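Notes to self after the Tuesday call (sharing in case useful).
The group wants a holo model before anyone commits to mutagenesis around the pocket. I volunteered. Ligand is nicotinamide-adenine-dinucleotide. Logging inputs and output together so the record is complete.
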Amino acid sequence: MAQRTVRVIMNGVTGRMGYRQHLVRSILAIRADGGVLLSSGDRVTAEPILVGRNAEKLAALAAEHDVADFTTDLDEALTDGSASIYFDAQVTSERKKSILKAIGAGKHIYTEKPIAETVTEGEELVTAAREAGLINGVVHDKLYLPGLIKLKRLIDSGFFGRIFSVRGEFGYWVFEGDLLSGQRPSWNYRAEDGGGMILDMFPHWNYVLENLFGKVQAVTAKAVTHIPERWDEQGRKYTATADDAAYAIFELEDDVIAQINSSWAVRVDRGELVEFQVDGTHGSAVAGLFGCRIQHRVQTPMPVWNPDLPTTEDYRSQWEQIPDNAEFTNGFRAQWEQFLSDVDAGRPHAYDLAAGVRGLQLADAGLASSAQGRRIPIEAFGS
Ligand SMILES: NC(=O)c1ccc[n+]([C@@H]2O[C@H](COP(=O)([O-])OP(=O)(O)OC[C@H]3O[C@@H](n4cnc5c(N)ncnc54)[C@H](O)[C@@H]3O)[C@@H](O)[C@H]2O)c1
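Result:
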């Protein structure tokens, strides 16, 4: 059986996501396992070319992980005819121009979200990739979480009957940087650097909602900055110009209502850092990153409101965990395997730049809703 190697230009690998999830947990893990096994019995593996701004950091990464090629010059990397994929995990504000260059050099595109800073910029990328006939994909990692895979299985099995409501809680306390240093990069809290809860998380919520429940047709959102001042990586105080929380209602196809609270200023009282409760006529479920608990119609207890008596029911114990009856790989790696297989086969990737534009549309509409104080209808791109 044949073994093929795809060379991947990886930009932004010194960053949190680029390094941990995409380089180490995905591309290097795939390489260490001898590549992805295709249905034909052939294998396709990946070899990274590291691109970044700091030559010393890149050299150290390359030495540590046995990577032959690295450069601080993206243009030079793009002239490498043996590399067929360009991957981007840079800060969002740097992404569009780099992707356009890569498209110009004829590379297939895989990128972190959001694909750009505005809908118009995202559409520009879609058009450029389409005209050049290139395969393109955008990270949809949350769809590959074990909890959401279990949830999808419940939906496909008809467990819920008619789904009418989805309620999501996402977030945790991100330290301001004075008492303890912040555990997320400071650019996330500066609008001028591409930060902001809505721009960060609505692209995720869009693909989660459209792939599990239906396309978003309207949004009503309130974006706020609860913590107005933070301290950066150098300990300098700065003004947080971006929203650090968003409270939103999403109206989906088939009359499904989704509400999602997203906050970097909330203390966790949940089983997991994100949880979605789904209610349907025949059953309900609460899915997190890993777990998914269910309560069927026939098991639903009958709560009775009585403020005179203390609660004796243990409501949490009335749900049943779905067992881990499948093996789950890291979600970023699972999507990389799919993308590499798609490039090898020359077929489109399911989660493409057009899906990335819909993510930006939702972010745009969410920000507009918050600024104007009204519900914003959405005509989904590519529908
Ligand atoms: N899929 C997810 O769950 C997820 C989670 C977090 C972040 N992200 C996305 O990944 C991207 C990177 O986020 P991160 O958390 O890894 O950020 P990070 O700050 O840790 O990394 C940013 C990377 O961009 C590079 N960079 C290039 N030009 C830059 C510039 N002018 N200023 C600062 N850095 C520059 C940095 O060197 C670094 O490699 C963002 O677009 C973000 O939206 C996705």
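Two things stood out.
The chain has nine helices and 18 strands.
The radius of gyration is 22 Å.
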